[in-house]
Amino acid sequence: MPVTVLLVDDEPLVRAGLRAVLEAQPDIEVVGEAADGAAVIPLVRRLRPDVVAMDVRMPLMDGIEATRAVLRTVAEPPKILVVTTFEDDEYVYEALRAGADGFLLKRARPAEIVHAVRLVAEGESLLFPASVRRLAVRYGDGARPAPTTPAHARLTEREAEVLRLMARGLSNAEIAARLVVGAETVKSHVSAVLAKLGARDRTQAVIAAYESGFMEPG
């Protein structure tokens, strides 16, 4: 089955460009388009896309509020990939905190766009560690507590190691290779980390790691 994608951007040329890039792939299908976040929920319910590629800045409802609305009201929400011009935009960080699975730069090359959609569809986060560190420093919740916080203290030593590698942008396969363990073992550790942190996905776990002081954003 192809990965189905809903495009949401107030610029028709951006939507047309993304559609052309994605529909050139045999395993990706663009099932719909919208010009504003306010149209996302009815389209998601009707089309059931696997991934929503959504502009972070739109006139009526931006990508942050649209992300919150989808996750709040849709029983089995799609993966959300926010599309942005500037990776250090506060809107990007707020969208990630709201539950978006990753972000994609509008200047990305076609191969990077395709890779991003496939990656989030498979359940991996699309994070650029250096960018997330900068965003955490600039837009995080002020002073950070000591590195060992109640939430992270419940992690086992191996789970904490997996979280550190997640925060550096490693995929499950890369973590497995680094730790010399099986992919299923890593998947189990990641699931445990998410459950203990109360995180929806890897993105939320990584943001929590930086904002809590567990990872130093230097």
Automatic annotation (TrEMBL):
Domain of life of the native organism: Bacteria
Occurrences of domain HTH luxR-type (ranges): 148-213
GO terms for MF: DNA binding
InterPro entries documented for this protein: CheY-like_superfamily, NreC/VraR/RcsB-like_REC, Sig_transdc_resp-reg_C-effctor, Sig_transdc_resp-reg_receiver, Tscrpt_reg_LuxR_C, WalR-like
4-aspartylphosphate, modified sites: D55
Pfam families: GerE, Response_reg
Domain called Response regulatory: residue spans: 4-121
Keyword list, A-Z: DNA-binding, Phosphoprotein, Transcription, Transcription regulation
Protein name (record): DNA-binding response regulator
Species of the source: Streptomyces canarius
